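Bit of a strange request maybe. I'm writing a small parser for structure token strings and I need a real example to test against, not something I typed by hand. Could someone generate the tokens for this chain?
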Amino acid sequence: MTNPSINGGVDYAPVRAYGQAMNVNHIGVTVGDLDEAIEFYSAVFELRILVGAETATRETAGADRRREVFGERWREMRIAHLADDNDTGVELFQFIDPEMTAPQEHFDYWRIGFSHLAFTTPDLDSTLATLEAHGGSVRTGIHEVEPGRRISYCKDPWGNPIELSSAPYPAVHPPATAGERAAAQDVADHEH
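Reply from user aminoacidic:
Good idea to test on real output. This should exercise your parser:
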């Protein structure tokens, strides 16, 4: 039950120190060429390489786990593990068998599932230039979503959608005040 006298009647998870609550651990990205992807993601987003390119098959360590994750069709892949300064990982996959197929349109935003990966950069313009110099492309212009907070949508060389942001997520999408939440709830109540 929500107590209207606390947080404007909205329940939020309590703020805890790092390691006491769940955090984003990593995201997996399927790419067309693992070696090129390691270069791209480490150069453009300054990710450090934890484990470089490895080949995994039904005969290598972890095969049972991978077959359970990817299904019976899975036979072989190449994989690498990278991380940012916050220790959030980017796991890169290049599937060999079954052979990969690229979707006809890479930004299938209308489908249920993950739609994009986002990075925070202190220099949006420079990062966009570096992304293009390494084979990525810019999908949108730069948009100011809050004063001094800019974003742009891009894609890696394999078409995977990437958002670049000039500020951390809570600064780009600041939490609503109690008054704003109450006003939004009032509108929602009158719509139903």
